[in-house]
Design a protein that fits this description.
The protein has 6 helices and 3 strands, in the order βααββαααα. The protein has 157 residues and is mainly alpha-helical. Strands 1-3-2 form a 3-stranded antiparallel sheet. It has helices at 7-14, 18-27, 46-58, 63-71, 81-115, 152-156, and strands spanning 4-5, 33-34, 40-43. The termini are far apart. Helix content is 51%, strand content 5%. One of its GO terms (molecular function) is DNA-binding transcription factor activity. Pfam families: MerR, MerR-DNA-bind. Residues 4-72 form the HTH merR-type domain. Keywords: 2Fe-2S, DNA-binding, Iron, Iron-sulfur, Metal-binding, Transcription, Transcription regulation.
Amino acid sequence: MQDLLTIGELSVRSGVAPSALRYYERLGLIRADRTGGNQRRYARAELRRVAFIRISQQVGVSLEEIRAALESLPEARTPSPQDWARLSETWRGRLDEKIRLLTKLRDDLDGCIGCGCLSLQRCMLNNPGDTLAGEGPGARLMLPRAPEESTPADSLA
């Protein structure tokens, strides 16, 4: 088995388009060596980094955050399970909050779809007259409020 992969091989193995791989390389997320003919060659370990990038993006982590995380990994060796565990621990709280929010959205959306939004008084997306505009952007009834954003009505709930 060959130690280095061409961009085409890395693309097929990772499921990521060559243009995205070149973009990841430009951002410093992955590294390639160059042949005498200036062709990219990727170490097989880059497959793991590309998988990490893709998974992280799918859960909403920005490429900038991914780059910072990858920069904390050892460059001279393949990251160990301990390296990956340390890295994942930094995102655990954020992922737990995202899971909580997605679960809430799923559960509330089930109720909304189930009633066909005939009861707009209970709808978590209804905002008649845009009365919540003063509280900030977004779906104010669905998104968790920061402590400094709580309103007097929240203390009555």
